[in-house]
Amino acid sequence: MKGTFIKIRGKSLYVEIHGNEESPPLLYLHGGPGESCYEFMIHQADRLSEKLRLISMDQRGVWRSEAIEEDEPLTIYDLVEDCEQLRRQLGIQKWAVLGHSFGGLLGVLYAIHYPNSVSSLILEGPSFDLIKSIRSWLRKAASLYESIGDAEKMAACIDIANGAQTPPEILDAFIELGQGLGDLRMKVYTPNGGSNYTKMIYSEREREEFGRRTNIHVSKIFAEGRIFDSLLPKLKELTLPVLLIKGRHDPIICEEQTDSFVNDVRNGHLKVYEESGHLLHFEEPERFAMDVIQFILESNHN
Questions:
Q1: Average pLDDT over residues 188-216
Q2: Which parts of the chain are beta strand (E)?
Q3: Would the N or C end of the chain have less CB density within 10 A of its end CB?
Q4: Distance from C-alpha of 133 to C-alpha of 246, rounded to nearest angstrom
């Protein structure tokens, strides 16, 4: 799986393009922050490119994209602006956007700030409100700690989930309690625990460098603080066709956020995968690809 490097606003970003140039274009925005597009493309590049021109990138400073230095600024809106500049450089008039998790948050911001650039929006297990997502995650993590008999960490999860801590404190607890689950951590996200989730082709040395870059990216995004701002009030601003694909067992797009989507997105559509969690493109790849392709083609036709 090979990509190219495109200079966007002073940085070389790693970009992959799959599919026929005449097919409807789709931009994929990965989660995290800092996760890269690598895993998604393993599971979906061949499937989606049968009918679409699939475009993805490692976001600014992440994984294979050029590193951000410690003294360089980075904001969420830099990531949004990179999407728009990539569209212009590729000569695409309008494209559909698919965002997973944190990428869903970016997709909403992009569609709101550049409504003439986005034809339709697909949101896979998005977070519209990071704090609500983390609280929901902690409640699910508490049940896993209970299952292994760790009452202390179970109580800590419940305390943070129901408490009045500041966003940075909640984030710190999420990171610490996530690490405490060890191999069980993926069970919070998906019922099957993420077996065979990622087939890694990069060396340990390369992965260490990717991790260094990602850590800088993540620290700057969280230090900026806008990632903690709820997007729920902004959902009413979306006027384009929007598809929310949600796994029934996904803690990230919790019921409160789902209800806001259903009530506030005027051209919104909801699909729920009853047996899946947060990683729908991996858990039910064929169904996921079919739903995404169908939605984009129908939206373009209408």
A1: 88
A2: 4-8, 11-18, 25-29, 53-57, 95-100, 118-124, 242-247, 268-273
A3: C
A4: 13
